[in-house]
Design a protein that fits this description.
Elements: H1 2-18, H2 20-23, H3 29-33, H4 37-45, E1 50-51, E2 55-58, E3 62-63, E4 69-75, E5 80-87, E6 94-99, E7 107-112, E8 118-126, E9 129-139
Length: 146
């Protein structure tokens, strides 16, 4: 009985080693090492975004703790392919990217880290077009609120 379990485990590990591309999601490495927002957008999407009022970016105007800034991005656009978040003044501006399935509600909520006050941009790729909206967020030190 234990031999069969051991053999099943070995076969499973062999399958995982043989097909890593099928088991692991692709990652836009060039975007995560870009040191400015424009390069990150170009590396991932290859096109400039168009401003859209159909993207809702919920983020505080003043973040008292830059280590945990809550961000929610949602949209009413049809055929959403991905949602991404960029913080312009971060050392690596490309913060997060989420591939969307047609079966899910196009909305994400995350907590991001901001090193300093900056413009935060939400990018939504829908129907082959890249849309964006942004907000300026002030990061305070020590929770003083000013």
């Amino acid at each position: 009985m234990h031999r069969r379990l051991l053999l099943k485990g070995i076969v499973a590990l062999g399958a995982m080693a043989a097909w890593p591309r099928l088991l692991l999601a692709a990652r836009p490495d060039a975007a995560f090492i870009a040191d400015n927002a424009e390069d990150a957008i170009k590396d991932v999407f290859g096109q400039a975004p168009v401003h859209s009022d159909q993207i809702k970016l919920k983020i505080p105007d003043i973040a008292e703790n830059g280590a945990v800034v809550p961000v929610t991005v949602s949209t009413d656009l049809a055929d959403v392919e991905s949602i991404s978040i960029i913080v312009a003044n971060n050392p690596t501006p490309f913060v997060a990217s989420f591939d969307m399935s047609p079966r899910v509600l196009p909305s994400v909520s995350v907590r991001i880290k901001m090193g300093e006050s900056s413009q935060v941009m939400a990018l939504v790729k829908a129907g082959g077009t890249l849309y964006s909206t942004s907000r300026d967020v002030k990061v305070t030190i020590g929770g003083c609120g000013g």
